[in-house]
From TrEMBL:
<dbReference type="InterPro" id="IPR057780">
    <property type="entry name" value="Beta-prop_Vps41"/>
</dbReference>
<feature type="domain" description="Vps41 beta-propeller">
    <location>
        <begin position="2"/>
        <end position="323"/>
    </location>
</feature>
<protein>
    <recommendedName>
        <fullName>Vps41 beta-propeller domain-containing protein</fullName>
    </recommendedName>
</protein>
<feature type="repeat" description="CHCR">
    <location>
        <begin position="540"/>
        <end position="684"/>
    </location>
</feature>
<dbReference type="InterPro" id="IPR000547">
    <property type="entry name" value="Clathrin_H-chain/VPS_repeat"/>
</dbReference>
<dbReference type="Pfam" id="PF23411">
    <property type="entry name" value="Beta-prop_Vps41"/>
</dbReference>
<dbReference type="InterPro" id="IPR011990">
    <property type="entry name" value="TPR-like_helical_dom_sf"/>
</dbReference>
<keyword id="KW-0653">Protein transport</keyword>
<dbReference type="InterPro" id="IPR001680">
    <property type="entry name" value="WD40_rpt"/>
</dbReference>
<dbReference type="Pfam" id="PF23556">
    <property type="entry name" value="TPR_Vps41"/>
</dbReference>
<keyword id="KW-0813">Transport</keyword>
<dbReference type="InterPro" id="IPR045111">
    <property type="entry name" value="Vps41/Vps8"/>
</dbReference>
<keyword id="KW-0458">Lysosome</keyword>
<dbReference type="GO" id="GO:0005764">
    <property type="term" value="C:lysosome"/>
</dbReference>
<dbReference type="InterPro" id="IPR036322">
    <property type="entry name" value="WD40_repeat_dom_sf"/>
</dbReference>
<dbReference type="GO" id="GO:0016050">
    <property type="term" value="P:vesicle organization"/>
</dbReference>
<dbReference type="GO" id="GO:0006886">
    <property type="term" value="P:intracellular protein transport"/>
</dbReference>
Length: 760
């Protein structure tokens, strides 16, 4: 205990102490009683220089209104702290070693009782007209005098001791409940320390022994009419220590014992857990460092306690220490002092979650903030940032305050991943601070953040201005990355054309995503060549996706310098929408001829929207025979077409099909002429020609000396086909003649019928 207490003990020494929940009283060797708060601060006007020699004992009533003191000067004083109505000044004339004030002294009608101990046990009480009546309770001279007195909390019982043992006395009945004798011969300089745990449990410490007694009321059916008191005492524990007991007190079901092994040693505070009548466990011995301990004996120490608060005051002449059981707050404080922040956070989290006993001085916020500050001090920025989410949650004010700590360390990048982005967003300038740090120190990270963060987190124009300004001084190596981020910012700000230009400048394929996302198809024609240079397929996809809105003439015109690009575009357009592509079929013919001949003939067959003469020229120049034949057939130049089929293609089947489709005898004769020099052609014609023209035309023109394999079979097939044709024609003729006669007969019959002529 420090503050004023330390000053007092510099010039004086403590002889005794009494404690109350409101304050504590210190008696000194100079005979002064000082009243202080529990922090050791002097209470103004509460210094009582009442005794001429050292104060032996001080006692306080239950309400903290009155104080009793005694001394070897033979005087006993009772002081009212708030009034003097019940003050007492008792002159004993003997060495008064102990005094105890009735806990109920503050109550009117209580008798205002005080008990003193010298060679006798005396009770002093106020009577009618405020006179003090002193009554001898016990003469203890033969037992070495009264050494200590202790009232029970109810004021019905007192415990007192001598050199031979201790007793419990029923003040109301004025009778002793029993005597417990010391197990060893008494020593004059040993103190007896007594404390009531409650109204029925007494703890006594003397020499090296601690005893615990129960004082219980007898059951009504067990009482005798001759019993002077309803109480009885039973000894519960007798615990032998390996040290001299200097003070005792209760701690829940355990005992607090102040002990000293040898004079001049450090005193020790023990937590004793009784197990059986004589057995116990010493759970927590703690050696104390008190000023001047090496000069003191066991009689120089004492222990006072506030049972309800589990607070203990350890008294020595030059030092007073206040102790209490370590609660969760104390444990957390110790962990913080020893930089065990992670454990402290676990403890406080567990305490908050359990909701058993609220913390008084610490919280998850205070411990977490201390931990974050520590991590920042050792430059463990990542862990500090990850901790922010757990500690600050959705508290915007706390987040904002903490972000500035990272800003001062230029480590906003560490906390970026943990900033709230949706609910409970921070002020915009916080997010802008993070972006500015990335811009200056990590351009790639700046780009990543711009891609990741929603645009409503920050002021886009402000960031754009900062980027443009930074580009003036930036490293050329990172310029491309920053320009890409600038393109994204332009897009987020609705300036899509600027963004497109930026993407094209960077040759970044993100331009296609931008076009598709914002349906910017109308601007594609003007920059189609740049887009094609970047990615042909994606550009074509964009053109087709916007086919209903873009100007295709502009696209075609701009793509003409690069036939490959134009081919890819028109080919896809024709595949997706032939109607839109019809006007460009002439151009597509040329492109197919250059890049994909396989698609040329299907186009020529399905379309009529191309210049046929120019197309024929293209096909002839490239010697595309099939395509040329098709075109010649279209314009009716069957002779040239037949010539190409037989001479260039050597396809007699196609030649026959052409002649069949035209049904032109002259064309058949041309085919026969082309075929006379080729045996396979003659055989094929003999097999097919019989059903279309007179086969004699072919047979008569075959040279007589020509050897033709398979001629016999071919002639048989030809004659069969011709015979079949003649038979079919005759059948048709018979049917025709029969139909003629039938119809003629019907006509004559109708004409021969009478006609009804009716009169008027």
């Amino acid at each position: 205990m420090s503050n004023d207490m330390r000053k007092i003990l510099l010039n004086d020494a403590a002889s005794c102490v009494a404690v109350h929940p409101k304050f504590l009283c210190v008696g000194t060797h100079l005979g002064i009683i000082r009243i202080l708060d529990h922090n050791g601060n002097h209470v103004s006007g509460k210094e009582l220089p009442v005794h001429s020699v050292a104060v032996n004992q001080i006692s306080i009533d239950a309400n903290g209104d009155h104080i009793a003191s005694c001394s070897d000067d033979g005087k006993v004083f009772v002081f009212g702290l708030y009034n003097t109505d019940n003050n007492q000044d008792i002159v004993i004339g003997r060495l008064v070693k102990t005094v105890a004030i009735d806990p109920n002294y503050y109550k009117s009608g209580s008798g205002r009782r005080v008990i003193t101990g010298d060679d006798r046990l005396m009770i002093h009480e106020k009577t009618f007209l405020s006179r003090v009546r002193s009554t001898l309770l016990v003469n203890a001279g033969q037992e070495g005098g009264v050494k200590s007195i202790c009232w029970s909390p109810t004021g019905e019982l007192i415990a007192w001791s001598t050199l031979l043992g201790f007793r419990v006395y029923d003040v109301t009945s004025r009778v002793s409940l029993g005597f417990v004798k010391w197990s060893k011969p008494a020593e004059m300089n040993l103190k007896c320390h007594m404390c009531w745990r409650d109204s029925c449990t007494l703890i006594v410490g003397w020499a090296d022994t601690v005893r615990v007694c129960n004082v219980n009321q007898k059951l009504p059916h067990l009482m005798n009419p001759t019993d002077a008191t309803p109480y009885e005492v039973s000894l519960v524990y007798t615990l032998a220590m390996n040290f001299v007991v200097c003070g005792v007190g209760p701690l829940e079901d355990s005992l607090v014992v102040l002990g000293l092994i040898n004079d001049g040693d450090r005193p020790q505070l023990h937590i004793i857990e009784p197990l059986a009548r004589t057995e116990y466990t010493n759970m927590l011995p703690d050696r104390l460092s008190l000023r001047g301990y090496n000069q003191y004996t066991s009689s120089d120490y004492s222990l006072e306690c506030l049972v309800e608060e589990s607070r203990y005051v350890i008294v020595s002449p030059k030092d007073i220490v206040v102790a209490w059981p370590l609660d969760t707050d104390d444990r957390i404080e110790w962990l913080l002092q020893h930089q065990k922040f992670e454990t402290a956070l676990e403890v406080v989290t567990e305490a908050v979650d359990s909701k058993n006993k609220p913390l008084a001085t610490h919280s998850k916020l205070t411990v977490g903030t201390a931990y974050i500050d520590y991590l920042l001090s050792i430059k463990n920025y990542q862990e500090a940032a990850s901790l922010c989410c757990k500690i600050f949650g959705d508290n915007v004010r706390l987040w904002e305050k903490e972000v500035y700590k990272f800003a001062r360390a230029h480590q906003l990048r560490a906390v970026r991943r943990y900033l709230p982005l949706t609910d409970n967003k921070l002020p915009k300038h916080i997010y802008e601070m993070v972006l500015y740090e990335y811009l200056k120190m990590e351009p790639q990270g700046f780009l990543d953040v711009v891609k990741e963060w929603p645009a409503n987190l920050y002021n886009i124009p402000a960031v754009v201005n900062a980027v443009i300004e930074h580009l003036l001084t930036t490293d050329p190596m990172s310029k491309e990355t920053i320009l890409e981020a600038l393109a994204i910012l332009y897009s987020l700000d609705g300036k899509h054309e600027k963004a497109l230009v930026m993407y094209l400048k960077l040759r970044n394929k993100g331009v296609f995503e931008l076009i598709e996302k914002h349906k910017l198809y109308d601007v594609v024609p003007s920059m189609v060549m740049g887009l094609m240079d970047l990615d042909v397929q994606q550009t074509v996809n964009c053109l087709i996706a916007g086919k209903d809105t873009i100007n295709h003439d502009t696209v075609v015109e701009n793509l003409k310098p690069n036939s490959q690009y134009l081919y890819r575009y028109l080919d896809e357009l024709d595949r997706k929408s032939t109607k839109l592509a019809q006007k460009y079929h002439g151009e597509l013919v040329r492109l197919y001829a250059d890049f994909n001949r396989e698609k040329l003939l299907p186009l020529l067959r399905k379309s009529e929207h191309y210049p046929i003469q120019a197309t024929i020229k293209i096909c002839k120049e490239r010697k595309f025979i099939k395509e040329t034949v098709h075109l010649l057939e279209i314009i009716g130049n069957t002779k040239e077409a037949l010539s190409l089929i037989t001479k260039e293609l050597g396809n007699i089947e196609q030649a026959v099909d052409l002649c069949i489709s035209r049904d032109d005898l002259e064309l058949w004769e041309d085919l026969i002429s082309y075929s006379l020099s080729t045996q396979s052609f003659i055989i094929y014609l003999l097999k097919r020609i019989g059903t279309y023209i007179d086969p004699r035309i072919l047979v008569e023109r075959i040279e007589s000396h020509m050897k033709i394999p398979g001629l016999k079979d071919a002639l048989v097939k030809m004659l069969q086909d011709y015979s079949l044709q003649v038979s079919v024609q005759e059948g048709f003729k018979e049917i025709l003649v029969l139909d003629y006669y039938n119809l003629h007969h019907r006509l004559v019959s109708m004409q021969q019928r009478g006609i009804s002529i009716g009169g008027k």
